[in-house]
TrEMBL record:
Transmembrane residue ranges: 45-63, 75-94, 100-122, 134-157, 173-195, 235-255, 261-284, 296-320, 326-347
Taxonomic source organism: Candidatus Nesterenkonia stercoripullorum
Source species taxonomy: Bacteria, Bacillati, Actinomycetota, Actinomycetes, Micrococcales
Name of the protein in question: MFS transporter
Bias (Basic and acidic residues) ranges: 401-410
Subcellular location: Cell membrane
Gene Ontology MF terms: transmembrane transporter activity
Main location: membrane
Gene Ontology CC: one annotated term: plasma membrane
Length: 424
């Protein structure tokens, strides 16, 4: 594949990842405000946050195998965006808190379908020497969406009927915008099917496999993947990182409301976290040539835990909260692409889509268990308790990762690209 084709494909994936996360980060904080407006409490916020992950939890491995077998991934990604639009419509149209659960579940499933397709496409088109940079750019698109989504959502709610009084009209308008924006992204992806002369669709096509390779692919069960060294550890780290991100999206609106922040100010806080992650992910290719991936992952877990663990105490001092959130977002943003790369390089090429899907199973399990736990704790302790639950999970993961680093201080692949030997 030519460098130009690879660049075009990675650019398209990055832009659609931006759209995907823009939608999620408009709809999900707005959903929290709608729960509050309908009389729901912090426990219900936790239940709805968990509903986002229920269907993905049981379907991720099957979707991963589907992605591995698919000759092209554009239809899979476009389907995910369309399902997200349908889920957002369900949330906006629902007159009750309980009715929002089904829409949130559809939103989460659509996001998973897109993510598995997108991550699998990155692993196909990125050369091994460029895998860190490719995943860095893809997740930079994620961070850009996480930055822009809360800003736009907060602005729509504040500008809606009621003049910023959190009226249902403004909240539902925000959810509609978040859902409908995915449709143009799906159309663009489907158009690539007609651009084969430019190589875009072919770039993400799976090569034809020999019979022996197909048999190797069949061995890519969850058990076989987990038997690879350190895979389980990195899946746990990924789950902790994403769970904290989800808890911030779900509970910072409540935390900010208690501290007297407007929806626009809360949107700014969530956006500055996205900016921090965007910056770190653009720098990831450079950082992994200087620092061992596993060590960088431990640093990511520790510093983001420290920053967000202190946020409930300082959120009332807005400039300090903004600074802390930016630093926390920078280090939080490193963890996800690092775990994608480490897991991708730790399994045979024919196992990569199922392995990335298993990572997403771990993520979604964390998104079910941790928000439910956080929501239960938030009922008596308030939203601060929910954020401390997420930070505590990351701290445990950092301790587990550090234990392995002490056992193998030199490690294979002190610099990022040396880890390519992990497939041998």
């Amino acid at each position: 594949m030519s460098a130009r084709t690879r660049t075009l494909w990675i650019t398209l994936l990055t832009l659609t990842a931006l759209v995907n996360q823009f939608s999620v980060n408009v709809v999900r904080p707005s959903t929290t405000y709608k729960v509050d407006a309908l009389g729901g409490d912090a426990t219900m916020v936790g239940i709805i946050a968990a509903a986002y992950a229920i269907i993905p939890l049981i379907s991720a491995m099957s979707l991963g195998r589907l992605a591995q077998r698919s000759s092209t991934l554009t239809v899979l990604m476009a389907s995910g965006l369309i399902i997200m639009a349908a889920g957002s419509a369900g949330i906006a149209l629902s007159p009750t808190v309980w009715g929002m659960i089904a829409g949130t579940a559809a939103l989460g499933f659509g996001q998973l379908v897109f993510t598995i397709g997108g991550q699998s496409a990155v692993s196909r088109v990125a050369g091994e020497s460029n895998v860190d940079a490719a995943f860095g750019w893809f997740t930079a698109g994620v961070s850009a969406g996480q930055m822009l989504g809360p800003l736009v959502g907060g602005w729509i709610i504040s500008s809606g009927p009621g003049g910023g009084d959190l009226s249902l009209g403004g909240i539902d308008a925000s959810i509609w915008v978040g859902g409908l924006v995915t449709i143009p992204g799906a159309v663009v992806l489907l158009l690539t099917l007609f651009l084969r002369r430019h190589g875009l669709d072919r770039a993400a096509r799976a090569p034809q496999k020999k019979e022996s390779e197909k048999k190797d692919e069949e061995k890519a069960s969850a058990l076989h993947i987990l038997q690879r060294p350190r895979i389980g550890s990195h899946i746990l780290a990924s789950a902790g990182l994403l769970a904290l991100t989800d808890i911030l999206v779900a509970f910072v609106p409540l935390l900010g409301q208690n501290a007297g922040l407007t929806p626009t100010m809360v949107g700014m806080l969530l956006a500055i976290r996205g900016i921090g992650s965007l910056v770190s992910r653009l720098l990831l290719g450079y950082l992994t040539t200087r620092i061992r991936r596993e060590l960088l992952l431990v640093i990511s877990l520790l510093v983001s835990t420290l920053c967000f663990g202190t946020l409930p105490w300082i959120i009332g001092v807005f400039w300090l909260a903004m600074t802390t959130t930016f630093v926390g977002g920078f280090f939080l943003g490193l963890g996800q692409p690092l775990t994608m790369t480490i897991i991708t390089m730790a399994v045979p090429p024919d196992w990569r889509s199922p392995a990335l899907a298993l990572r997403l199973v771990g993520n979604r399990l964390g998104q079910v268990v941790i928000p439910l736990t956080a929501g239960a704790i938030a009922a008596p302790a308030g939203p601060s308790g929910a954020i401390w639950v997420g930070a505590g999970v990351q701290l445990l993961s950092a301790a587990e990762q550090s234990r392995h680093l002490r056992r193998d201080p030199g490690g294979k692949g002190t610099k990022g690209q040396d880890d390519d030997e992990a497939d041998d």
